[in-house]
Design brief:
Length: 153
């Protein structure tokens, strides 16, 4: 909180002294926080983290948060998303579920038939982690086979 106040004061000072174009450019840079500082509940070294109890996910690299927390939805009763530590097995940009005959755009499979993919974050799934369209593309673009995914309650 204190850091945000300092950044705001510096931005305001830069706006006054140098003009709004300089200050706007300086605030456009993405913030990269350490996983611990950002409150990520997963262990160090994971590339993707999901907290089922709060419907949140993070994408990390080198112990830093790249994206998140983002809103997700997960498995409904009878199709719960299991907690655990898994590895990404494969990616399929245009996957269609053979079981439910439903599109699963930007699928990143990490636990058998369970994947991150684009879907409604307002409705529960058959076990997969639903992400918004933009977030699904980000996860798809960042994650690779072998990357570690941790799902916690």
């Amino acid at each position: 909180m204190l850091l945000r106040a300092v950044v705001l004061l510096v931005t305001l000072a830069a706006t006054s002294a140098l003009g709004s174009g300089i200050a706007a450019a300086s605030t456009a840079a993405p913030r990269v926080a350490s996983a611990a500082a950002a409150g990520v509940p997963c262990r160090v070294g994971v590339r993707a983290c999901v907290r089922l109890s709060t419907n949140q996910a993070w994408l990390m690299r080198g112990g830093k948060v790249l994206t998140g927390p983002v809103r997700v939805s997960h498995g409904r009763p009878g199709f719960r998303t299991p907690p655990g530590t898994f590895r990404v097995s494969f990616l399929d940009q245009d996957h269609i579920s053979t079981v439910y005959d439903q599109p699963m755009p930007y699928s990143v499979f990490f636990n058998g038939d369970i994947a991150f993919h684009q879907g409604s974050v307002r409705s529960t799934s058959h076990g997969c982690i639903h992400l918004s369209a933009a977030t699904a593309r980000t996860f798809f673009g960042e994650l690779r086979p072998g990357d570690v995914v941790q799902v916690v309650r």
